[in-house]
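Sat 14:20. Reprocessing the chain from the morning session after the first attempt stalled halfway. Input below, unchanged.
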Amino acid sequence: MAINSVLIAGAGAVGLLAAETIYHSDPQCVSILAKGERLKRYREKGLKVNGKRLDFRFGGDSPVDLIIVACKFHHLSQIIEDIRPCVGRDTIILSLLNGISSEDIIGAVYGRERLPLGMIIGTDAFHSGEETTYTLKGVINFGDADGKNGEREKSIADFFTRTGVPFALRENMRRMLWYKYMINVGANQTTAVLRLPYGAVQNKGGPGEIKEARLLMEKAMQEVIAAANAEGIDLNEQDIAEWYRTLNLLNPAGYTSMAQDVLAGRKTEVEMFSLQMMELGRQHGIPVPVNETLYLQLRAIEQSYA
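Finished this time. Tokens:
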């Protein structure tokens, strides 16, 4: 099936990043999900990427070929309801949420067969208000959960090729999803609690690097590796080393999405990171003391905003 219409559900850093690329190739095929007060605000203030206001179409009332879900985890239940008019018989849904559970949550409502596994990695996008800025777009990775890529994945790949969206079609996507989860649990939570930029946890010899912050990130990641192994996913210490290859390319002054949330006084995605790790630890009898501590710290931070 050819994809000729795409709805972006979530106009944050990742959503606007993808929307901008598609817009510059085919502005008529992409629209942003917006209703009510949000729609009014977007029309009044506009949506900007790297300082340029883009004349996006707004949708949410009719079926589309592809829905890219790029909201925060705590907004997912509302997004699932809001996209209902847009899900047609053959609509494909690609979730770019952090974590390892969004595909199952969306699939429980609309059918798991609509959703390949997906994620984005390598972007330094920053979002504030109605504007996203970035220097690195990153790469959307996707693929069938069982490694059996077919017509669904080919349709997405053809569309991304036509519209210039950087992507990688994977056969080992479940492992890739856990790899990204390891990164988020370690880097996002550490930088959020410490309110530090990427440069603090890089290991390329930069002036702002903090060894202790880097070690905290790694210890949180090691707990994810243990949980992944218990789930039958072969993550290992080499994956942490591989992460630094990407991390060291990011703008040292940039911030992870969770650090951005904390600095802006917004709700974080702690439930899909350390809280889920605590649940995985209980299921598999694995101690996760670093994630337990990060959870308590982040919940305290959230409650301190007022």
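The longest strand covers residues 87-95.
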